[in-house]
Amino acid sequence: MKKIGVLALQGAVREHVNMLEALGCQTVLVKYKEHLEGLDGLVLPGGESTTMRKLLNRYELLEPLRTLAQQGLPMFGTCAGLILLAKEVVDHDPHIAVMDVVVARNSYGRQVDSFEVDLNIAAIGDAIPAVFIRAPHIVSVGEGVEVLAEHDGKIVLARDGHLLGCSFHPELTTDLRIVEYFVTTMV
What is the pLDDT of residue 103? Predict the structure, then answer.
C-alpha cells in the first residue's frame, strides 16, 4: 500500500485524503517534519500560498520539503501547491522552488470569477472536470517539462519528472483520474 502524505497546514486537505484513500492509499497528515518520514509521495493542496509559506516557515518544513523534492520524492501540487513548487513566481519570491516552471498567481480573477470546465488530457482522459478558484497558471516551462493540459491558451497542468503541478482543484470533484495518474504513474 502506497503511503502518501498530504500537507495539512491549510486548504483542501480532507478532499485530497478522501481521494487518495478511495484509490487504496494510506494517508498521512503532514504538519511536522517527522510526518515526512517514510512517505512514497506528497500532495500539496490548494489554499492560500502566502499563508502556506508562513506556516511552512513556522513549522520548519520549507527546507525538508525542498530536500525531499530534490531527492526525488514524487509531489503533486494543486493551485497554491503548484505555486509552492514553482521555481519562479511572477512578482513574488518562490517558495519550495523545485519545479521548472514559471507561475502567475490569480490568473483567472477573483473568487467571484471561479468556474468549472471539462478538460481533455491525452495522458489521462477526456471530459475531466477542472474547478478553477483564484487559480494560477503556468506561464512557461523549462526544458523537459511535459505540458499535460491547457485552457484558453494557458498551461494548467504540467509534469516535471517526479513533480506534478495543477492550476485547478481536481479534489473538489468526484473524478479520481488526475489523482490516480499521480499515484499510479509517479509514485
Answer: 97
For this structure, is 169 an active site residue?
Answer: yes
Number of domains, the chain: 1
The closest alpha carbon to 35, from 6, 71, 15, belongs to 6
Query: What pLDDT is stored for residue 109 in this prediction?
Result: 66
171 is catalytic: yes
Answer yes or no: are the C-beta atoms of 24 and 8 closer than 8 Å: no
pLDDT one-digit tens code per residue, 134-165: 889 999 999 999 999 999 999 999 999 999 99
CB atoms within 10 A of CB 86: 30
Is 137 one of the catalytic residues? no
Domain range for residue 97? 3-186
Q: What is the CATH number of the domain that holds 162?
A: 3.40.50.880
Phi-psi region of 114 (alpha: psi -120 to 50; beta: other; left: phi over 0): beta
Nearest by Cα to 27 from 67, 60, 76? 76
DSSP-derived letter for residue 153 is T
Q: What's the rounded Cα separation, in Å, for the pair 13 and 33?
A: 17
The pTM for the full model equals 0.95
| Active-site annotation holder among 16, 25, 35, 79 | 79
Catalytic, out of 16, 35, 95, 169: 169
State the average pLDDT over residues 101-125.
Answer: 87
Catalytic residue chosen out of the listed positions 16, 35, 137, 171? 171
Q: How far apart are CA 31 and CA 8, in angstroms?
A: 6
